[in-house]
Specification:
248 residues, Jelly Rolls, elongated, mainly beta, 5-stranded antiparallel β-sheet, 0% helix, 40% strand
């Protein structure tokens, strides 16, 4: 049965039930209560509301099933203007994977409160309630370390060190990975510029940028050979930028 406001569609077939009833006056292009066959070339376009609106009451586990026989094709292809939703679900969604058409950029930032030392005998300080940052109150060659978690398969694109530097020494923000059967490997280093005050330095030179969580553990550290025991040299944060092609 075709109702008020229906447009002609080539190849649209009602298989069961009452077919298709237009509900354009309530915001929907087509209100479907039946199974159907929609052949290639069929087209529905309404200037507002829903192109297709389904309200299916069924005890079937797959009341609406769309398949494609093309191994590289798309069973459903949805587009929306900027700010709109190509697909919107008010209930749960299940998918084997959710891939992005273009890589998404994400940032992981480790603040000074997360850093620890590798030796309990080293004295250090963290200014968490005022100017911030962490530094060693014992002068010499020392480093802070913090473990990080990155999505498996992510591509690391940048490392940024956020420092307070009023010292003649250099403070290095470093990204490491530790293999389960070998020695630590340095993946990237971003050094403080030596300019007094708060400063940030970024490097995009990343060795082995693809994250492999099966064989490596990842961490960042803040290392200097010239800690002078004062707050003139502080690590504020270390930031890792990465992209992913699939939702984690």
């Amino acid at each position: 049965m075709w109702g008020k406001g229906c447009a002609a569609l080539v190849g649209l077939t009602a298989v069961l039930g009452f077919g298709w009833v237009s509900a354009q006056e309530t915001g929907g292009g087509y209100y479907g209560g039946a199974s159907y066959v929609l052949k290639a070339g069929d087209f529905v376009n309404w200037p507002s509301g829903h192109g297709w609106y389904f309200r299916i009451a069924s005890t079937s586990s797959n009341p609406l099933k769309v398949t494609t026989t093309n191994s590289s094709g798309k069973a459903i292809y949805a587009q929306a203007p900027s700010g709109g939703y190509a697909v919107y679900a008010s209930g749960r969604m299940a998918a084997k994977s959710l891939k992005y058409t273009t890589p998404r950029t994400h940032h992981l930032i480790v603040g000074s409160a997360a850093f620890d030392t590798v030796s309990d005998s080293l004295a250090y300080s963290k200014s968490e309630l005022s100017s911030g940052g962490a530094w060693f109150t014992t002068a010499g060659d020392h480093f802070f370390v913090a473990a990080i978690n990155l999505p498996d398969g992510a591509v690391i694109t940048g490392l940024t060190g956020h420092f307070y530097d009023a010292s003649t020494a250099t403070l290095n923000a470093q990204l490491f990975r530790e293999p389960v059967d070998g020695n630590y490997q340095v993946l990237a280093t971003a050094a403080s510029s030596g300019s007094p005050g708060y400063t940030s330095t970024t490097t995009t030179a990343i060795a082995n940028p693809v994250v492999d969580n099966q064989n490596y553990a990842y961490e960042v550290d803040a290392w200097s050979t010239g800690w002078d025991g004062t707050s003139s040299l502080r690590i504020k944060a270390i930031e890792v930028t990465y992209t992913i092609n699939e939702a984690p």
